[in-house]
Amino acid sequence: MSTNLLSTSTGISFGGVVQEYLWNWENQQLRVVYETLGKGSPLLLLPSFSSVSTRLEVGELAKLLASNFQVVAIDWPGFGESPRPSLNYRPEIYQHFLEDFVKAVFNTPVTVVAAGHAASYVLQLAVKSAAFSKIVLLAPTWRGPLPTMGASQQIAGFVRGLVRSPILGQALYKLNTTQSFLSFMYRRHVFTDAAKITPSFIEKKWQTTQQPGARFASAAFVTGNLDAVREQSDFLELVKSLTVPLMVVIGESSPPKSREEMNALVALPGVRSVVIPGSLGLHEEYPAVVLEVVQDFLFSSEN
After folding, report:
1. Where are the alpha helices (DSSP H) in the chain?
2. Burial letters for 17-33: b for 16+ Cβ neighbours within 10 Å, e otherwise?
3. In what order do the strands lie in the sheet with 272-276?
4. Structure confidence by residue, pLDDT tens digits, 45-100
5. Which long-range contacts (CB under 8 A, 24 or more apart) does 17-26 make?
6. Count of alpha carbons within 13 Å of 90, Cβ hemisphere only?
7. Strand partners, 138
8. What distance in Å separates the CA atoms of residue 78 and residue 271, rounded to the nearest whole number?
């Protein structure tokens, strides 16, 4: 696949070099924004999937890691600053994108630090190829919000179709991305320190949700259409099949169902793990703590 790397000017960054990766998917060219900061061994930093997903959520962690690594952080297709066309967002898109991006940008196996729902995609690629040398998963999840709440695939699909519809869908999306609702969700299961959920913080998150076409990929995530695996057993099987070191960081205040899934993951042989303050947004809320607990793993020469 032919690819091009182009410089792009933007006022939104964490201080690195912002570029765009041109990627072809089903005869359509997509632009994917990514940012590079620091010097040293390459490290791929992947934000979680969510309605407010953006590489800036891992920006503070990127700045801390940049002292020792050349950090590359992405805005997933359909999220962040990457354009958001009305595609049928599904796992195949992100599986192919991640594989192609890693091949295009890195010439050796790379360390990867992935948050939330990015976990399954990283594990699948790691099992398929020698793309990664080490893997750190931060508050890993594999099942979207609606399926986690017990919604069937039929109900989730109906909701997804509604949100994708032109008028009703825009209204429903607007209701679910108000600043008050975003603040509620952050307090409920993303951050643990309410003092950090300031009006200006929520304003920035809200701005992320208001980009043209933002509802399409967001609806896919919420309704489980970005779940790369459908069963816990499949997720755990990926981990069992790994041949590279894996470390998992868990937030002690993670939602009960998510915590159960994470506990099952770290109970597997060979998986290193640590529990730190925080919940599903621990990488954004406590980046210095994350660095502190993973740095020995990252710098270790063990395979």
Report:
1. 59-65, 91-105, 118-128, 145-148, 153-164, 168-175, 179-185, 199-209, 214-222, 232-240, 256-266, 282-285, 287-299
2. ebbbbebebeeeebbbb
3. 4-7, 17-25, 28-37, 69-74, 41-46, 110-115, 132-138, 246-251, 272-276
4. 999 999 999 999 999 999 999 999 999 999 999 999 999 999 999 999 999 999 99
5. 21/101, 21/104, 21/105, 23/77, 23/97, 23/100, 23/101, 25/77, 25/87, 25/93, 25/96, 25/97
6. 7
7. 115, 249
8. 32
| CB count in 10 Å sphere of residue 236 | 18
pLDDT in tens, 106-160: 999 999 999 999 999 999 999 999 999 999 999 999 998 888 887 788 887 888 8
In this structure, the chain runs to a length of 303
Residues 6+ apart with CB under 8 A from 8: 18, 19, 20, 33
Phi then psi for residue 23, to 5 deg, are -130, 135
Claim: this prediction has a pTM higher than 0.85: yes
**Helix H or strand E segment including 22:** strand 17-25
d(CA 6, CA 9): 10
Given a contact cutoff of 8 angstroms between Cβ atoms, the answer to whether 116 and 140 are in contact is: yes
Using alpha carbons, select from 70, 63, 74 the residue that is nearest to residue 111: 70
Name the token pair of 149: 């709440």
- Crossing angle for the helix pair 118-128 and 91-105, to the nearest 10 degrees: 60
198 to 182, 183, 192: CA distances (angstroms):
11, 9, 13
